[in-house]
Amino acid sequence: MIHSAKWIWLDEKKYKDYQKAPISLFDPYSTDCKFAVAEFKKKVEFEKKIKEIKIEISGDVKFWLYVNDAYVGTGPVGAGGDYEIDRSMPVQYYNTYVVKPDTDFVEFYVMVQNVPSVLCDMSQGKNGLILAAKCILEDGSEEMVYSDSSWLSRRNNSYLSQNKVDLTLCSDRWNYAEETEPVWNLKKPDILMLEEEEIIPEDFVPFSVAPGEMKEVVCEFDKIYSIYHYLEVEAYGEYTILIRDFERDFQKNVNLTDTITGNSSVKFRGISMVSSGGMKLFVYNGGEKPLRVNKAAGLFIHYPIMNEGYFHCSDEVFNKIFRMGRHALKICRQSIELDSPWHQENLGCCGDYYIASLMNFFTDGDTKLTRLDIVRIADCLKLYEGYMFHTTYSMIWLMMGYDYYLFSGDISIFPEISEAIELLMEKMHSYAGTDEIINDPPSYMFVDWLVVDGISLHHPPAALGQAVLNAFYFGGLNMAAKLMGIMGKYDMQKRYHDRAAVLQKSFQENFYDAEKGLYFDGHNFKHWSGKWMQPNTDKRYFSWHTNVIAVLYDLAPKEKQIQIMETILNDMTLINPQPYFMHFVLEAVYKTGLFEKYGIRQLRRWEVMTDFEKGLQEGWYDMSGYGFDYSHVWAGTPTYQLPSKLSGLQILEPGFKKISLAPALYGLDFAEMEIPTPYGKIEIRMEQGKEPVIKIPEGISVEERKDFVKDPI
After folding, report:
1. In a 3-state reduction of DSSP, which class is residue 652?
2. Burial category of 162 from C-beta neighbours within 10 Å (exposed 0-12, middle 13-18, buried 19 and up)
3. Mind listing the pLDDT tens digit for each residue in 518-576?
4. Number of Cα atoms under 13 Å in the Cβ half of residue 507
5. What is the C-alpha separation between 352 and 372, in angstroms, rounded?
6. Rounded Cα–Cα distance for residues 264 and 258 (Å)
7. Model confidence pTM above 0.85
């Protein structure tokens, strides 16, 4: 349907400075491009009432769609991409909506922002709007409406930037839109469209501001939300309103998000999404009559949540942690997964999204967004010939793909990602020597949000990052081999297995310290340094990180794995993780059969976060000069770990066709959970001194194994 419509934009002669767009925020052109919001409208009348309208729409860079003055949706679905991306993604997605106006006319109104404003915004380098609508009339007949040169367009001069609006400025006159040559490869995404709900701060009370007065009003939400601002203002003269959002502490964790200047009453909807736990409004009334703010709210936007999963136990700390992770997941699930609505990083940061996907499998059960994330990351890998900004994350992408296959049973994804896997593995191989040890990568990142001896483990030198990258590479080689085996590409499977065998031997020779019985983090050779590679050091370091990954992916000999884990778990003087990397720690603890002894203790580290239940903080502690957020989904692994480990779920045949369970309380008095599957929910209730009560949906074959140990690869 949409392919019959025309891409349209502002008239080139009148708006010559508003035709091109930066590819992303990393495009050098972004500093020269002028910000603008274009408006488009079209009214069509019919002889009969409209029963339903099916709409397909896309815009570059962002659009906001209204039908008959009612808001419908924001888009387009994100194209994905990586950090520092400077190339257009190969696919542009379009959104689909259904509206039921019950009128004999339809009026489309669309606002389109012309430049990227956050890290996950992507453009094809050119602005445009396309829309197709099938209007189904009450007698069953159909009428089509397409974007073309009959639509009206203009620049809305009120929008000075994505967060600065001057409503006293008049918009240009309407004139006809201009059809523009298409450069977009449009594709329909198989995901649900975002939902929106109004969230009113708990303590908001309508207030008045006297003429000449400046009033400051703080109002807080019950939780942190991903919102657009919404204000209803009754005014009779000039005014200025500043909105400063904060997640936790207005004095420290604050972001200036919207400045509105006006001279009359308005129902204002912002165009900048922000992570907000509360707002401080600064309202100046320059008019001669009192101004009144009747409503200050957040328009909470997120991917539809089914709430299929459930977990509750005898320990209220764990219940809080589970709920906090679940909410963090909700606010981060947009048309792409976000690390947080505060940062809004793109899909190349898939270490975050891997953990989010596992959480989602146990809380919601919808796998469509995860599937599209994996495919979009593959598109980016193909665009950059296998390169990913974060080298360790590229290996985690492989794990994310396999776990999606386990939970969904969807084998159709593999043809879409096969080429990207091969490009990725050849790129990683190019960083390695004949012994398969990676000595010369573009970076050793990402390890963790830690600073050691003044050195950030975000982008460490070899001495702090070489071994963990090689350990991830080993896991990636074996996972790539497994995926190739599933696809029947046995020559590639053998290639990756052979490389893994060479790397395993070399890793022992290069990084094992027999005296300590641990692996050290890297060598002290001199290497190049730059923005994402710090100068190497002369010190030998030992961390949980390297040793955990070596155990988790069976790089360490099996007979040494328990000893390695016991050593690090009892030595807090070693470099130990922030919440992100604790995901891998808990996986390794469970794999080695040590969850009874250490798992619950490690999960209790999250207790420090429960004094602020509105959001999930990024780390146990902040780092100087950084300032972490309180909406970061990567810290939410307990929301996956608790039902996963207490149920002992192992998927033996993809798509839950065959599973095993090993339910255990690990010292808790009781626990109950519901785990979503394609067949319905698995229900488990455990109580000390009683046999577990387990309900399995029809269609799932169960093999109970109390000695179950998860296969990590």
Report:
1. strand
2. buried
3. 999 999 999 999 999 999 999 999 999 999 999 999 999 999 999 999 999 999 999 99
4. 30
5. 15
6. 18
7. yes
